[in-house]
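Table S5 (text form). Sequence records supplied for joint modeling of the two-component complex.
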Amino acid sequence: MPDSAPAPLPAALFAEMLERTQVRLVGFARGLIGNSEDARDLVQDVYVEALRQAQRRGPPFGPQPDPAAVDRWLYAVTYHRAVSLLRHRRVIAWQPLDAAMPEVERRSGSPSFEEYVVESAALQSALARLEPEDAACLLLNLVQGYSAGEIARTLEITPEAARKRTSRALQRLRVAYSQQNPTSTDPSSPHTQQTAAPPSAVQKRGAQ
Amino acid sequence: MSMNSHTPAPTPTPLCAAFEPQVALLSSGMLEADEAAAVHEHLATCAYCQLQLHEYQRLREDTLRLLFGSEDMPAQSHSNSGTQRALNGAAGGATLDRPAYFTLADILQASAEAPPEADEPRQAPRPPEARRQRRLLTSLGAIAAVLLLAVLTASLFSAFLGSRSPAVEPTPTIQRPFVPYFAAAPGSPCDTNPQASTLWSQDKGTCLTNPPRTRLVSQGHLLAVMRWDAGTYQLPQNYKISVQVTLEGPTTAKLQMDDDSRSIGHVIACSPNHCDLDGQSSAACACATSGPLTLIISVNGASERFYVGSTLLGSVTEASPLHPDSIGLGVTASDPSAQGAQAVFANFAVTAT
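The corresponding structure-token record, covering 561 residues in total, follows.
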């Protein structure tokens, strides 16, 4: 008797996808939500969702999964979950009682560690000031090397919007980064104030 | 990254502002060929935009370094760096040199543990300690499953035997010995009993675990942020529950003690320039917003006293000594649209007195 249920995705294929995508996906999530632990947790949940989708053979995990489509699906789900998480951070958040410690793993003997810590904290703070949509466009280009068209398909926006958002994100990130870490970029840029993120954007993504 | 102070900074030309969006995108590969050519033509004669381009490139590298952690800090040539690999790594390019975060077994076990169709992003963010614990539990999931199966089997077997026994004594709830509980912020052990939701203003609430050295910041609608599972402890006759709260904006913070079996529920509510006990205003009390306040419920046998700081809000004497089922903490913004209203909880403690 023929079995009407679709055959589940072979484990080896899922494992290959996991291996191929996870580091960048965690990096993408970290850029959006600004916390490594949250990012790993969020991406784990994305993979659980992917596994269930793959077991159902739902798109994009069809008979012959297209890796590019799978990647886009993963980034889209990660983005939407990150946005949801950011909304909830406006209600409850844990704040360290100690002075803010950047989330980097200390490596003894690294001569530039202190500089790296300062810059990382400044950059993380600057990233948090971007609108999530802008940050997602920038991060998809940075982390995954996506073109405007691929970003557009992932986030369901137009390619022109993807380009504008990426450019805007870079300009605002540069301004915010230079404000947080004055040695990082040229603070004397006459464009600095023109491209600064509006206060609403700061409130929108800033953790409490 | 800093500029040489002896070199005068290049000044922008009138065209620079128009080119900046394209200069920002030049390293992204998102410009059309003709656009890129135009930008390169401008760059050839504009020192200012050359500097901007350098800074955008540097920003991209710094961002990638941040995202992928110190392991990928480029130490030598950029062409072999992790950041550059990431930049070049689209469409099946080289992988980053990082250990994997998850294995297929991890995901399978996480899937088995997660509820079907769970929409976890709608939950409050789990604190780091809880997450680490979760991942540890994930790795122990198989062992736990076997143990659970064994326990269930044993339960079923004993139930079968019990049906043939003339009398089966219900298993009494074993209360753990009380030890003083301190947390930097409200936290575990949290009451996960679904019935507890009815004890806290009909709000479902959220169980949280308090990471070390953290404080809890909460804002928004009424929300039980913590219920300490007091019913599982052998509380002493005399004890004190206290929490430090800082109010910022039009927020009300609450400390509540419940005893479901006796329909007792007392709450200290503290809002800017006002505080009350069980809905009754206390004229002598004012919850300032300038600094932290301490909410205290002090229990001596059957007698309870309620304080905000050193101000006594009131007292209640019950018929018998109090062993509350739960102790809750919550916050509500008086205006849901209020921006910036929040309560910060810290130094939660349950101690014998």
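Note: Chain B touches chain A through 89 residues (CB under 8 Å).
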